[in-house]
Amino acid sequence: MLQAFARLADLTDLRLVICSSNYSKRAKLYEKLATRLGVHDRIVWRFALDEHELAAWLPHAALSVAPLTDCARNIEQGCAPLKILESLAAGVPVVALDLPSVREIMTDSEHGRLVQPDRPAELARVIRVLLQYPERLREMGAHGQRHIAVYFSWQRSLHLLRRLYRTLLLTKENRDHEYERHVSIAE
Protein backbone atom coordinates (compact mmCIF):
# COMPACT_ATOMS: atom_id res chain seq x y z
CA MET A 1 0.00 0.00 0.00
CA LEU A 2 2.79 2.40 0.83
CA GLN A 3 4.44 1.82 -2.55
CA ALA A 4 1.09 2.39 -4.28
CA PHE A 5 0.50 5.56 -2.25
CA ALA A 6 3.91 6.90 -3.31
CA ARG A 7 2.73 6.57 -6.93
CA LEU A 8 -0.16 8.91 -6.09
CA ALA A 9 2.13 11.77 -4.98
CA ASP A 10 0.61 14.15 -7.55
CA LEU A 11 -2.73 13.93 -5.69
CA THR A 12 -1.49 16.39 -3.08
CA ASP A 13 -4.78 16.52 -1.13
CA LEU A 14 -4.94 12.74 -0.78
CA ARG A 15 -4.23 11.36 2.68
CA LEU A 16 -3.71 7.77 3.69
CA VAL A 17 -5.16 6.96 7.09
CA ILE A 18 -3.67 3.79 8.52
CA CYS A 19 -5.86 2.41 11.27
CA SER A 20 -4.32 -0.39 13.26
CA SER A 21 -5.21 -2.44 16.30
CA ASN A 22 -1.46 -2.81 16.94
CA TYR A 23 0.74 -0.42 18.87
CA SER A 24 3.01 2.05 17.09
CA LYS A 25 6.25 0.21 17.90
CA ARG A 26 5.10 -2.65 15.60
CA ALA A 27 4.88 -0.22 12.69
CA LYS A 28 8.40 1.24 12.87
CA LEU A 29 9.50 -0.54 9.68
CA TYR A 30 6.46 0.80 7.83
CA GLU A 31 7.09 4.31 9.11
CA LYS A 32 10.69 4.10 7.90
CA LEU A 33 9.51 2.87 4.50
CA ALA A 34 7.00 5.73 4.30
CA THR A 35 9.79 8.20 5.07
CA ARG A 36 12.07 6.61 2.46
CA LEU A 37 9.24 6.79 -0.13
CA GLY A 38 8.61 10.45 0.74
CA VAL A 39 5.00 9.98 1.85
CA HIS A 40 5.27 9.95 5.65
CA ASP A 41 3.92 13.51 5.97
CA ARG A 42 0.77 12.54 3.97
CA ILE A 43 -0.08 9.61 6.23
CA VAL A 44 -2.27 9.77 9.33
CA TRP A 45 -1.21 6.95 11.66
CA ARG A 46 -3.78 5.71 14.19
CA PHE A 47 -2.66 2.92 16.49
CA ALA A 48 -4.30 0.71 19.07
CA LEU A 49 -7.79 1.58 17.84
CA ASP A 50 -10.69 -0.29 19.30
CA GLU A 51 -13.74 -1.12 17.18
CA HIS A 52 -15.59 2.06 18.19
CA GLU A 53 -12.69 4.34 17.28
CA LEU A 54 -12.32 2.57 13.93
CA ALA A 55 -16.06 2.88 13.27
CA ALA A 56 -15.76 6.65 13.74
CA TRP A 57 -13.10 6.88 10.99
CA LEU A 58 -14.81 4.71 8.36
CA PRO A 59 -17.68 6.98 7.26
CA HIS A 60 -15.18 9.70 6.33
CA ALA A 61 -13.21 7.49 3.94
CA ALA A 62 -13.59 7.84 0.18
CA LEU A 63 -12.57 4.21 -0.05
CA SER A 64 -10.97 1.51 2.05
CA VAL A 65 -7.94 -0.46 0.95
CA ALA A 66 -7.34 -4.02 2.14
CA PRO A 67 -3.83 -4.88 0.93
CA LEU A 68 -3.85 -8.45 2.21
CA THR A 69 -0.78 -10.47 1.38
CA ASP A 70 -0.61 -13.40 -1.00
CA CYS A 71 0.48 -15.89 1.66
CA ALA A 72 -0.52 -19.36 2.84
CA ARG A 73 -2.63 -17.95 5.68
CA ASN A 74 -4.77 -15.95 3.27
CA ILE A 75 -4.82 -18.46 0.41
CA GLU A 76 -4.73 -21.99 1.83
CA GLN A 77 -6.12 -21.49 5.32
CA GLY A 78 -8.46 -18.72 4.33
CA CYS A 79 -9.00 -15.61 6.33
CA ALA A 80 -11.96 -13.58 7.45
CA PRO A 81 -11.00 -10.07 6.37
CA LEU A 82 -13.03 -8.10 8.90
CA LYS A 83 -11.71 -4.85 7.46
CA ILE A 84 -13.59 -5.57 4.25
CA LEU A 85 -16.81 -6.52 6.04
CA GLU A 86 -16.64 -3.46 8.31
CA SER A 87 -15.90 -1.09 5.43
CA LEU A 88 -18.69 -2.42 3.23
CA ALA A 89 -21.12 -2.35 6.17
CA ALA A 90 -20.26 1.33 6.63
CA GLY A 91 -21.00 2.01 2.95
CA VAL A 92 -17.35 2.47 2.02
CA PRO A 93 -16.22 0.80 -1.22
CA VAL A 94 -13.18 -1.45 -0.93
CA VAL A 95 -10.08 -1.94 -3.04
CA ALA A 96 -8.69 -5.33 -2.06
CA LEU A 97 -6.38 -7.97 -3.34
CA ASP A 98 -8.00 -10.60 -5.52
CA LEU A 99 -7.89 -13.57 -3.15
CA PRO A 100 -10.41 -16.41 -2.76
CA SER A 101 -11.51 -15.27 0.72
CA VAL A 102 -12.13 -11.75 -0.59
CA ARG A 103 -14.13 -12.97 -3.61
CA GLU A 104 -16.42 -14.79 -1.16
CA ILE A 105 -17.31 -11.41 0.35
CA MET A 106 -17.30 -8.88 -2.46
CA THR A 107 -17.73 -8.65 -6.21
CA ASP A 108 -15.28 -6.74 -8.38
CA SER A 109 -16.71 -3.51 -9.83
CA GLU A 110 -19.88 -3.86 -7.76
CA HIS A 111 -18.70 -3.33 -4.17
CA GLY A 112 -15.24 -2.02 -5.00
CA ARG A 113 -12.31 -3.30 -7.01
CA LEU A 114 -10.07 -6.33 -6.82
CA VAL A 115 -6.43 -6.12 -7.87
CA GLN A 116 -3.73 -8.75 -8.26
CA PRO A 117 -1.39 -9.19 -5.26
CA ASP A 118 2.05 -7.61 -5.22
CA ARG A 119 1.31 -5.04 -7.92
CA PRO A 120 1.59 -1.57 -6.35
CA ALA A 121 1.35 0.16 -9.75
CA GLU A 122 -1.98 -1.55 -10.47
CA LEU A 123 -3.24 -0.77 -6.97
CA ALA A 124 -2.32 2.91 -7.44
CA ARG A 125 -3.97 3.02 -10.88
CA VAL A 126 -7.23 1.54 -9.55
CA ILE A 127 -7.30 3.98 -6.63
CA ARG A 128 -6.59 6.91 -8.98
CA VAL A 129 -9.39 5.94 -11.38
CA LEU A 130 -11.93 5.39 -8.60
CA LEU A 131 -11.16 8.75 -7.00
CA GLN A 132 -11.96 10.44 -10.33
CA TYR A 133 -15.54 9.11 -10.14
CA PRO A 134 -17.00 10.03 -6.73
CA GLU A 135 -20.55 9.17 -7.84
CA ARG A 136 -19.41 5.66 -8.80
CA LEU A 137 -17.70 5.35 -5.42
CA ARG A 138 -20.98 6.25 -3.69
CA GLU A 139 -22.84 3.64 -5.78
CA MET A 140 -20.30 0.95 -4.93
CA GLY A 141 -20.51 1.90 -1.26
CA ALA A 142 -24.31 1.65 -1.30
CA HIS A 143 -24.20 -1.70 -3.12
CA GLY A 144 -21.66 -3.00 -0.62
CA GLN A 145 -23.72 -1.86 2.34
CA ARG A 146 -26.84 -3.61 1.00
CA HIS A 147 -24.81 -6.72 0.19
CA ILE A 148 -23.52 -6.97 3.77
CA ALA A 149 -26.99 -6.33 5.22
CA VAL A 150 -28.51 -9.13 3.13
CA TYR A 151 -25.79 -11.78 3.11
CA PHE A 152 -23.74 -11.18 6.24
CA SER A 153 -26.31 -10.23 8.87
CA TRP A 154 -26.48 -11.99 12.23
CA GLN A 155 -30.01 -13.14 11.38
CA ARG A 156 -28.91 -14.80 8.14
CA SER A 157 -25.87 -16.35 9.79
CA LEU A 158 -28.03 -17.74 12.58
CA HIS A 159 -30.51 -19.12 10.04
CA LEU A 160 -27.73 -20.85 8.08
CA LEU A 161 -26.16 -22.25 11.24
CA ARG A 162 -29.50 -23.66 12.42
CA ARG A 163 -30.08 -25.21 9.01
CA LEU A 164 -26.63 -26.81 9.11
CA TYR A 165 -27.27 -28.27 12.58
CA ARG A 166 -30.65 -29.64 11.45
CA THR A 167 -28.99 -31.27 8.44
CA LEU A 168 -26.27 -32.77 10.59
CA LEU A 169 -28.79 -34.09 13.12
CA LEU A 170 -30.98 -35.61 10.40
CA THR A 171 -27.94 -37.17 8.79
CA LYS A 172 -26.88 -38.65 12.14
CA GLU A 173 -30.42 -39.97 12.78
CA ASN A 174 -30.41 -41.57 9.31
CA ARG A 175 -27.00 -43.14 9.97
CA ASP A 176 -28.20 -44.45 13.34
CA HIS A 177 -31.36 -45.85 11.73
CA GLU A 178 -29.35 -47.53 8.93
CA TYR A 179 -26.96 -49.00 11.51
CA GLU A 180 -29.86 -50.42 13.53
CA ARG A 181 -31.44 -51.86 10.36
CA HIS A 182 -28.17 -53.56 9.35
CA VAL A 183 -27.66 -54.96 12.85
CA SER A 184 -31.19 -56.43 12.94
CA ILE A 185 -30.74 -58.00 9.48
CA ALA A 186 -27.42 -59.54 10.51
CA GLU A 187 -28.96 -61.13 13.62
Question: Could you explain the architecture of this structure?
Answer:
The longest helix is centred in the C-terminal third of the chain and has 33 residues, at 154-186. The relative contact order is 0.11. It contains nine helices and five strands; from the N terminus they run αβαβαβααβαβααα. It has 187 residues and is mainly alpha-helical. It is elongated.
Bin the strand percentage.
5-15%
What's the arrangement of strands in the largest beta sheet? 3-4-5
Instruction: State the low-pLDDT regions, or none.
Output: none
Structure summary, number of beta strands: 5
CATH superfamily assignment of the largest domain?
Glycogen Phosphorylase B
Oligomer: single chain
Shape: elongated
**What is the correct CATH architecture of the largest domain?**
3-Layer(aba) Sandwich
Total count of helical runs of at least 4 residues: 9
Q: Strand-and-helix sequence, N→C?
A: HEHEHEHHEHEHHH
Q: Helical content, roughly?
A: 40-55%
Q: What top-tier CATH class of the largest domain fits best?
A: Alpha Beta
List the defining traits of the structure above.
187 residues, Rossmann fold, 3-stranded parallel sheet, mainly alpha, 9 helices, elongated, 54% helix
List the helices and strands and how they pair.
Layout: H1 2-6, E1 16-19, H2 28-37, E2 43-46, H3 51-57, E3 64-66, H4 72-75, H5 82-89, E4 94-97, H6 100-103, E5 112-115, H7 120-131, H8 134-151, H9 154-186
Parallel strand pairs: 1-2, 3-4, 4-5
Helix pairs in contact: 5-8
Gist?
The chain has 187 residues and is mainly alpha-helical.
